[in-house]
Design the sequence.
């Protein structure tokens, strides 16, 4: 009897121990570096795309498409989920406003993904050289900012990829200005 009680106790310990290991939650110590790393990856991908627009002879459809895919995968839902909690948090520059203005924040995260997907589609259409279709025409008006912009695939498919790219960079700026602590 005593022995079986002991065994039950050990069994319970194991179950509790394992279930706490299996819990699929982030702790502050891993979520903040994770989302910061995602932002760094987004930034590196945007830089790679920017370099190709600056010097179209370096355009590589595969690399351009991969960079767009990186931004797409790390934006939208991924950003929204990673800033759902641990806001504010130690070591994080995320502002509490994110929780107060969830819809605005989510809209910017989704816009970022829409622009990245438009860039990915452009790379698939232009697998040889960077065609003039991808470039902004001299004097082309930069219609629409990140507010109230129509980011449907249809509309973004009708403007040059370079234009979508500039709108994407505005989205980064707007989100940071509103939702990220400034460093002196
Ligand atoms: C929807 C809002 C939003 C968008 C859009 C967004 N960011 Fe961020 N970004 C943030 C927030 C919030 C932080 C602060 C994260 C933290 O410290 O927890 C951040 C942090 C960063 C950082 C600093 C990471 C670090 O190591 O501290 C970089 C770099 C960055 N973003 C680049 C970009 C670039 C480039 C784009 C656009 C291509 C972009 N972000 C778009 C919200 C956004």
Sequence:
């Amino acid at each position: 009897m005593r022995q079986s009680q002991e065994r039950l106790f050990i069994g319970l310990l194991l179950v509790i121990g394992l279930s706490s290991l299996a819990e699929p939650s982030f702790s502050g110590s891993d979520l903040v570096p994770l989302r910061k790393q995602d932002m760094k990856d987004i930034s590196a991908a945007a830089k790679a795309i920017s370099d190709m627009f600056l010097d179209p002879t370096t355009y590589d459809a595969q690399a351009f498409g991969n960079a767009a895919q990186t931004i797409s995968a790390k934006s939208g839902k991924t950003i929204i989920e990673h800033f759902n909690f641990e806001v504010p948090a130690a070591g994080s520059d995320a502002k509490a406003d994110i929780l107060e203005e969830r819809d605005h924040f989510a809209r910017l995260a989704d816009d970022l993904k829409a622009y990245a997907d438009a860039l990915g589609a452009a790379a698939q259409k232009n697998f040889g050289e960077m065609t003039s279709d991808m470039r902004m025409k001299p004097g082309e008006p930069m219609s629409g900012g990140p507010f109230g912009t129509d980011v449907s695939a249809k509309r973004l498919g009708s403007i040059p990829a370079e234009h979508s790219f500039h709108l994407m960079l505005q989205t980064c700026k707007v989100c940071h200005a509103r939702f990220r602590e400034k460093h002196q």
Notes: The chain has one domain: 32-179. Residues 16-24 have pLDDT under 50 and may be disordered. Residues 32, 35-36, 39-40, 42-43, 46, 79, 83, 92-94, 105, 108-109, 112, 168, 171-172, 175-176, 179-180 surround heme C (CB under 6 Å). The first helix runs from residue 2 to 22.
